[in-house]
Design a protein that fits this description.
Strand order of the largest sheet: 17-16-13-14-15-12-18
Strand content: 15-25%
CATH architecture of the largest domain: 3-Layer(bba) Sandwich
């Protein structure tokens, strides 16, 4: 075994990107991916409803960094090495065209995540990357090998030990994972992992009868905190989801975990209004359309089923005319439109898609190389580090960026 060997722990987006780029940049490296499960690129497969949200059509560094609740300062330096433009170019050079949708999310033009998987697998085959499945790492330590080379000894559960000159940990970031135990033993500090990007459960709440309804411009605020978020809100059969809720869950992830995901939110169903402007709008509607039924006039541009729900909640009968709307019921309607409160009891995460807040402390990693400051020839990429983004392609961009930086550093060293 004369070739220097890179072991990449984790067969996800970051791991694959590190492996294929390192193998391409330095053909003298022997590159092996250790994947603990029997599936490769599982998050790539399910992302974006099976279409793979590869990155975001954002070419402003300042705007991009606002999308990361944790790690933005670290990424400010890292993204200069490999930005969204580089991601687009990398895939296009390999025959994968990406398209941007109205909200900025970017997908392959085929609308299939398999296109991305096939591209990465083709690169792995082209550059001789070895892939070993069902290899769960249980420990790592430095040890000497023949001819005086210092190598990493990586023990795999029920699968023996492998040696490596370089190791890149790209094993994701799931809470309470055993992986963090052996990473701690290497001298690293772990920011406690908690779930991010989750939906809010409202068990037994009547609002769930409106499942499938979307309020396009809602504002959701977590009472008693500074956190609020604006955007589309989706009502589901278990509670609330959509970009407004997912973004809020990301930024408030640590506080919500500390409260065991029991908290109260206030929803403004149309963020273009506050209580004062909503009251003024209703007053003007009363004069302009006095004889019309309230049910038939929707001044806040809400989905009709939601409008009907809010009227019922405000004790306004469906055959009531605007001219006959009592002041008490009008005030109730204003409150329900602009500040309706919901007690949240728990969260729902999708095990293949959810993101973790937490991981390897960023001060212990070099942003120019992704190399550990605690151990030589140990690198990190992807979600295992304490970086996470909101939904929209930002977490994959972190995977591509950190994977590429690690690959380049390893290729130059090897």
């Amino acid at each position: 075994m004369n070739k220097k060997r890179l072991i990449v722990v984790g067969g996800g987006a970051a791991g694959f990107f590190c492996a294929v780029n390192a193998a391409r940049m330095n053909p003298a490296l022997q590159v092996t991916i250790l994947e603990k499960s029997s599936k490769l690129l599982s998050k790539v497969k399910v992302s974006g409803g099976g279409r793979c949200n590869v990155t975001h059509h954002c070419f402003s560094m300042a705007e991009m960094l606002k999308k990361y609740p944790r790690g933005s300062s670290f990424l400010k330096k890292a993204l200069h090495h490999f930005f969204t433009t580089d991601t687009i170019e990398w895939f296009e050079e390999r025959g994968v065209q990406l398209k941007a949708e109205d909200d900025g999310r970017m997908f392959p033009v085929t609308n299939s995540s398999q296109t991305i998987i096939d591209c990465l697998m083709k690169e792995a085959n082209k550059y001789g990357v070895e892939i070993l499945m069902n290899r769960e790492v249980s420990s790592m330590e430095n040890g000497e090998w023949s001819k005086g080379r210092i190598q990493w000894k990586i023990a795999c559960k029920d699968a023996g030990t492998v040696l490596a000159d370089y190791v890149c940990i790209a094993s994701g970031g799931y809470p309470k994972s055993i992986q963090f135990d052996w990473l701690k033993k290497l001298g690293h500090t772990i920011e406690e992992p908690v779930p991010s990007l989750f939906t809010f459960n409202l068990p037994g709440n009547p609002i769930t009868a409106l499942m499938g309804v979307v309020a396009e411009n809602a504002v959701v605020k977590i009472n008693g905190t500074k956190w609020s978020s604006q955007g589309p809100l989706l009502i589901t059969h278990w509670g609330m989801s959509g970009p407004a809720v997912l973004k809020l869950s990301a930024f408030a992830a640590r506080e919500l975990a500390a409260n065991n995901w029991h908290f109260t939110i206030a929803v403004n169903w149309n963020g273009a209004f506050n209580e004062n402007t909503a009251r003024e709008k209703l007053q003007s509607i009363r004069f302009e359309t006095a004889a019309k039924k309230i049910i038939n006039t929707n001044p806040f541009n809400l989905p009709q089923r939601l409008w009907q729900y809010l009227l019922n909640l405000s004790d306004i009968k469906e055959d009531t005319r605007w001219a006959d709307l009592p002041a008490k019921e009008q005030n109730k309607l204003v409150k329900n439109v602009c500040t309706q409160e919901f007690p949240v009891k728990g969260k729902t995460t999708f095990k293949e898609e959810f993101v973790t807040a937490g991981g390897i402390k960023l001060e212990e990693i070099g942003h120019n190389s992704m190399q550990s400051k605690m151990a030589t020839n140990l690198f990190f990429a992807g979600e295992v580090i304490n970086v996470d983004g909101v939904t929209g392609g930002f977490n994959f961009q972190n995977a591509w960026t950190t994977g590429w930086i690690a690959a380049k550093a390893i290729a130059l060293a090897g």
